[in-house]
Amino acid sequence: MKILIVDDFSTMRRIIKNLLRDLGFNNTSEADDGSTALPMLKNGAYEFLVTDWNMPNMQGIELLKAVRADERLKDLPVLMVTAEAKREQIMEAAQAGVNGYIVKPFTAETLKEKIDKIFDRVKS
Amino acid sequence: MPQQQIETQQRQLELARLLIEQLEAGQADEAGLTIQRLGAPYERELFEELGRLTRDLHDALRSFREDSRLLEITQADFPDAKERLNHVITMTEQATHRTLNAVDEGLPIAEALHEKSARFIERWASFRRRELDVSQFRELSSDLDAFLGHATDEAKRLGSLMSEIMMAQDFQDLTGQIIARVIRLVQEVEGNLVGLVRLSGERLEPEKIQSSTTAAGAKAAASPLDGQGPAVPNTKDAEADVVSGQDDVDALLSSLGF
Description:
The complex is a heterodimer.
Chain A: E1 3-6, H1 10-22, E2 28-31, H2 34-44, E3 48-51, H3 60-69, E4 78-82, H4 87-95, E5 100-103, H5 108-123
Parallel strand pairs in A: 1-2, 1-3, 3-4, 4-5
Chain B: H1 3-24, H2 28-66, H3 68-128, H4 134-168, H5 171-201, H6 206-220, H7 246-255
């Protein structure tokens, strides 16, 4: 499965990449904010998007909205992994159609659990 | 030269000649009066300049008082930023301890594995040279059995300690976001201070200063939905309605039908 990891911190991208590899997902690419991620998504046949919220230029919530507004990308499963913890923000992400929301700091177990849940749902 | 200035100069010349005449004639009192009349135009200029400076100072002080953003920064944002930076120290300290704890536990495991397997090399070589009798071979075989089970468990433990070290590095992202927010505040203070310096250094340019401070103010008042980085305890983040962890997020999302 081809996965795009979007975070402005390269350290966090590496951590997520490593965790995904432990879970058996080896085909990952990285982008450092929404504005670089969006063209990659449009051209890249990605099957899953993991994105941060607080990033320069285009924030994760804007990326999520752009994905849902795009005819070809609108069904892409999106998992948000972010330090943003306001209830208002989580509700905004839910309304925008996020498939899962993880607050940092998080554990490997949480990541596995949310990913399993997302794909169980996508399959059913 | 403008007409008025020529006239003034002419008048001053006449007064100077009069002064010389009066001094030569020994008319001290009259000469004193003439000196006063000679000085009058300069005094007026001095008073006018003094008046203008007083007005500038007054305006500068008033606009400094009215610039509530600077006041807000010193009263609220600086203590808030200090708290954020303290939190960064705490987080980096915790991450370092978490890493060192994993290393403290992992290193002896690696050393013991190395030592035990090194001892087997010698015994295994003796076996291959057919130097072991039956009872020695039985002993080697049962030791090997135990070691293989042990090594499998220990290697697994080492792997999980490595993961622990990796997860501890998430502090770089979290503290980075907090520090970036403090840097934004420092930049805003810098902008305000530059405004103040301009205010006190140059002739007043009220429109320019006004617009620069409102621009900074508008930037500070970002939408609540904009990403702000991690919520830091004991700062104004505490006023916001923030979840306490993943369980809270899951509860909120399931209440929304997730």
